[in-house]
């Protein structure tokens, strides 16, 4: 599997750059090295759920890869918008990362990566890293359960009602993004390995699944697979004990490892 991630300082969509990357910002392929991907004829139906004002998904000509790009700007309220923005809300319980950090006010907010159109579930698992590990349907980035070089609990007080914060780069979710999902089966986004992630419930049963692997994944039908079973992740239904988070209970969005390499 080939997968590349690159933060951008501005948005420019180059259809001819589907496979471009640099040695400085690429993410390894997990050691699989399999270039015999089978192409698909259309984008996965789940991409229809993404905020089209922020997220663009383009299928390669041979149907083997999907290029995904986002502005990084979520379509919901937060204390991290500038105060004169219509989406700004005051959140007295949140201690902002820095008072002059706001969505749309910094560099590196956009993100893009390329994934296999059909995730390779036969290769090695890969540990998540700091920075963007996926893109949510809102247009914002998904991060893992770490902050800087330490545990997320050190920064839990800066997370807004959406389980996200900004500082100073991309606005990103660490916890269950409640504007998108709150103990339901809603699609949350897609991760760097090309696997979709959903809320704490599964549409196939209408309940919290009990057969999840260490990544929160399992194989079942979803609301986007037209009756076919597909491997996908869920937010694991385990409370994250962050005493300084203003909106308890909290659930880590994704800690990994990735399975789709």
The gist of it:
With 261 residues, the protein is mainly beta. It has strands at residues 4-8, 55-59, 65-70, 110-116, 134-136, 141-142, 146-147, 150-151, 164-166, 171-173, 187-191, 196-198, 217-221, 229-234. It has one domain (42-260).
Sketch the topology as an H/E string, one letter per element: EEEEEEEEEEEEEE
Poorly predicted residue ranges: 1-35
Q: Residue-averaged pLDDT, rounded? A: 85
Outline type = globular
Number of helices: 0
The number of distinct β-strands equals 14
What percent of residues adopt helix (DSSP H or I)? under 10%
Strand content: 15-25%
Rg of Cα set: 17 Å
Largest sheet: 8 strands, mixed
Number of domains: 1
How far apart are the termini?
6 Å
Strand order within the widest sheet? 9-10-6-5-11-12-14-13
Structural class: mainly beta
Keywords: Signal
Domain YHYH: 113-210
Organism: Winogradskyella eximia
InterPro entries: YHYH_dom (IPR025924)
Please describe what this structure looks like.
With about 260 residues, the chain is mainly beta. It has one domain. It contains no helices and 14 strands. A hairpin with a 7-residue loop joins strand 13 and strand 14.
Lay out the secondary structure.
Blueprint: E1 4-8, E2 55-59, E3 65-70, E4 110-116, E5 134-136, E6 141-142, E7 146-147, E8 150-151, E9 164-166, E10 171-173, E11 187-191, E12 196-198, E13 217-221, E14 229-234
Parallel strand pairs: 6-10, 12-14
Antiparallel strand pairs: 1-4, 2-3, 3-4, 5-6, 5-11, 7-8, 9-10, 11-12, 13-14
């Amino acid at each position: 599997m080939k997968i590349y991630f690159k933060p951008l300082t501005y948005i420019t969509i180059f259809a001819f750059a589907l496979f471009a990357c640099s040695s400085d910002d690429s993410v390894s392929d997990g050691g699989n090295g399999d270039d015999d991907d089978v192409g698909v004829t259309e984008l996965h139906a789940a991409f229809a759920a993404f905020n089209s004002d922020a997220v663009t998904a383009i299928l390669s000509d041979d149907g083997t890869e999907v290029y995904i790009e986002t502005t990084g700007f979520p379509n919901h309220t937060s204390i991290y918008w500038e105060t004169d923005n219509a989406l700004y809300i005051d959140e007295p319980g949140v201690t902002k990362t820095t008072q002059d950090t706001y969505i749309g006010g910094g560099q590196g907010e956009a993100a893009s990566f390329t994934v296999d159109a059909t995730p390779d579930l036969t290769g090695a698992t890969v540990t998540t890293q700091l920075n963007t590990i996926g893109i949510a349907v809102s247009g914002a980035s998904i991060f893992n359960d770490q902050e800087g070089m330490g545990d997320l609990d050190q920064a839990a007080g800066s997370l807004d009602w959406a389980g996200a914060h900004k500082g100073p780069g991309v606005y990103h979710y660490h916890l269950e993004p409640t504007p998108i999902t709150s103990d339901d089966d809603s699609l949350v986004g897609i991760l760097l390995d090309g696997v979709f992630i959903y809320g704490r419930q599964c549409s196939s049963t209408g309940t919290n699944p009990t057969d999840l692997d260490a990544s929160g994944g399992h194989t079942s039908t979803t609301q986007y697979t037209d009756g076919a079973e597909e491997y996908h992740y869920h937010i694991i239904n385990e409370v994250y004990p962050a005493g300084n988070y203003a909106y308890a209970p909290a659930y880590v969005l994704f800690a990994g490892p990735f399975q789709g390499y």
